[in-house]
Amino acid sequence: MTARFGGARHGAAIRPMINRCGDDRRGPVVAGAAALVACLTLTATAWAQQQVQVQGQVQVQGQVQQARPAQAEAAGRQIEGIIQAEAAATVKAFNAGDAAAIAGMYLEAGELVDEDGNVFAGRAAVKDLFTKFFEKFPKAALDMEVTAARSIGDAVVVEEGVRRITAVADAAVAQMRYVAVRVKQADRWPIASYREFADDPTPTPREMLAALDWMVGDWVDESPEGRTAISYRWSEDGNFLLGEFNVAIGGKPGGKSVQRIGWDAVKGELRSWTFDSDGGFSEGEWGAGENGWIVKSEATMPDGSSGSATVMIAQQDADHFVIESTDRVIAGAAEPDFRVVVARKPPAPGAAEGGAKPVEGR
Predict the structure, then answer these.
(1) According to the model, what pLDDT value does residue 349 have?
(2) Quick one: CA dihedral 163, 166, 170, 171, positive or negative?
């Protein structure tokens, strides 16, 4: 189109008129004037004809350009509908535990690559993979969300999305991103290659604290040195464990402490902050050990001196846990280690068993 309406074609049409004006030899001034008028008239007419022709072509071209996006949009909607239908069929087959149906959605030489890079090449390998999975997790459920589908030519589509699998009831959801390459075969779009990428959502503070859920409730430590009543409960927002310690010596109040345990998303660890009624406070960094939790504690005493200790907290059974404190240093002086066994406090008469409960719905 550009070449057809370029300057060379316009020049070829107009140039004869210009030459004719220059070559008119019919006579003096009148002839020259008449020739000039004729020349101008012909030139203007030719130019007008050219503009009408050009404008007509531009209008036609504009209509073609407008038609092309409309056709592409319609084709895109058609592809999206096809891919959504394929995804729905996948969900139906998966939730029915039908490994053969899932494998049938792949090319004979299709492949599945899991998030660890393991390649299952061929429809038979894909079927075997899902057969073993459904034998292990017969109640597994799948949910899929197609986030993009784009065509490469007329016979290839790249599909992107998110799939979520719950292996057993009430279990955590495993979320993956995926990319699938589909090729057209008659009226079907089987998978040539399917690849998954880990995409688990960021865990919530409550999920990271779930390993300490057993601490929720009322506890008591009765030792020769005194009696310590301990209570743990979930905060109202469910993001922290709140602890309270009441010490009694000889039947008289000997001090009180409050503690907050939370998840530090920056350091990637559990941390605790403890405040004592005498003005002292401490901070602990929690790490999972082989036999329990190891807490590295740093304390500031009311007089401004500092202290440190390594505390191990290990659950013995549903009603007992052990606290061991080692490497104790206060104001630069070493302190003796200690070990205490803490027992769950029996509920008061008429009270519900099990101690404090997590906040409803959290």
Answers:
(1) 65
(2) negative
Question: Does the reported pTM lie above 0.70?
Answer: no
Q: In 10 A of CB 117, how many CB atoms?
A: 8
> Is the CB of residue 319 less than 8 Å from the CB of residue 346?
no
How far does Cα 11 stand from its chain's mean position?
A: 62
By DSSP bridging, strand 241-249 and strand 252-264 are antiparallel
Task: Measure the CA–CA gap between 183 and 103, rounded to whole angstroms.
Answer: 15
Segment 223-267, tens digit of pLDDT: 777 889 999 999 999 999 999 999 998 888 889 999 999 999 999
Cβ(192)–Cβ(199) below 8 Å: no
Strand duo 306-317 + 320-330: pairing: antiparallel
Q: Specify whether the CB–CB gap between 255 and 279 falls below 8 A.
A: no
Question: Which tokens is 200 given?
Answer: 């688990």
Q: How far apart are CA 258 and CA 232, in angstroms?
A: 10
CA distance 330 to 64: 85
User: Is the pLDDT score of 314 beyond 90?
Assistant: yes
Domains delineated in the chain: 7-72 (no CATH), 79-198 (3.10.450.50), 206-344 (2.40.128.20)
Beta strands 191-198 and 141-152: pairing type?
A: unpaired
